[in-house]
Amino acid sequence: MDFDFTPEQLELKERARAAGLVWRGRHKEWDSENQSPYAEITKAMRDAGLLGLTIPKEYGGKGGTALDYVIVVEELFRTSQSWILGEPPFCTTGPGPSMVLLADEEETRQKFLPDIVAGVKGCAIALTEPDHGSDLTDLETIAIEDGDHYVVSGTKRFITGSPENEIYAVFARFDGIPGAKGVGCILVEKGTPGLELLPGATFVGSRGLPHGEVHMDNCRVPAENLISGAGSFAKLMTAFNMERLHNSIYSLAFAEAAYEETVQYCENRKSFGKDIIEFQATYHTLVDMHVQIEAHRLLTYKAAVTAIDSRFPRPLESTVSKLSGAMMLPTLTQHGLLLHGGDGATLDYPIQQIHRDAIAAMVAGGSPPVLRNAIASQLFPDRRFSQK
């Protein structure tokens, strides 16, 4: 499999690198204050031409591939050392707009995609519920058809982009149908009566990234906002695989950042009269970190280049790469902390923040047990691994 970048992709990589470096060092402030200039960052990414990367040109996108997306987001994450820099490409390319592409009606695509892709309106995924977590098919949020509207009620949590984003792709149960067969998705717009956007829990890492809860109390939503109703869960999950690819990129880029910070520390720190990188225990650990990064890189790139229509990552490849990153990153950053010695236990070096940010890699887009369930169901399709 050829992972050599084209001249156009190399230019895209350099553009993303430059855009990320502008914000290098700001993550410490965002981490401390748990706030970031979200709108300003989105504008900067728009000016750099890094939005709507895989969305077709007829909707204002760049018409690129999933690998283009990996190239851009990896550079933004790695150079800025902040999850926040990857959020504008995610909101304009990830599962939100990808789901809108899957809408049953062209009217829905025309209504929402141009503003989403341009970064004028952010689109968040409202899937997780307080009482169900990763149980994506046991949703309590309901959507009831009422003439030319749907009435939507329910609560979502851990919604990245809330309350900043203007559009929420809400997964709900339609027609009272139980299980996966009743799940569909509808777009609820900010300002809709009955919609309340509240701050979320305080995270250990990934601080400064907007996230919160979405409460809906009899929100009347136009029928033209429907992406797809009951019976569309499997189709909608095709777009959701883009989130797993995104989280896989996150693990790759932050592992690279941890490695770079650790190498720099080890080359400049002396002990017993020499640079500590010259001790075998040190450079063996660095070699192991490098190998882990390169192994995960191959899985991440494979998930991108095998995407359906070059745009929708396949379930197996994206889930495998996501699981790889979830298990690799926290261990790798811990090795980085140890090589920092006592300095690794302070707030004075970037490695501690990268280690805290690694916690999100374990659960965002699915925890390891859930990912293993999904992988097993695809490896052994003739078996039924019931979770009931």
UniProtKB/TrEMBL annotation:
Domain Acyl-CoA dehydrogenase/oxidase C-terminal: 236-379
Documented EC number(s): 1.-.-.-
Stretches of the chain forming a coiled coil according to its record: none
Gene3D superfamilies per record: Acyl-CoA dehydrogenase/oxidase, N-terminal domain, Butyryl-CoA Dehydrogenase, subunit A, domain 2, Butyryl-CoA Dehydrogenase, subunit A, domain 3
Keywords: FAD, Flavoprotein, Oxidoreductase
Domain Acyl-CoA oxidase/dehydrogenase middle span(s) in chain numbering: 124-219
Highest taxon in the source lineage: Bacteria
Acyl-CoA dehydrogenase/oxidase N-terminal domain boundaries: 6-119
Protein's UniProt keywords contain Oxidoreductase: yes
Cofactor(s) the record lists: FAD
GO molecular function, one term: oxidoreductase activity
The family this protein is said to belong to: Belongs to the acyl-CoA dehydrogenase family.
Protein name, UniProt field: Acyl-CoA dehydrogenase family protein
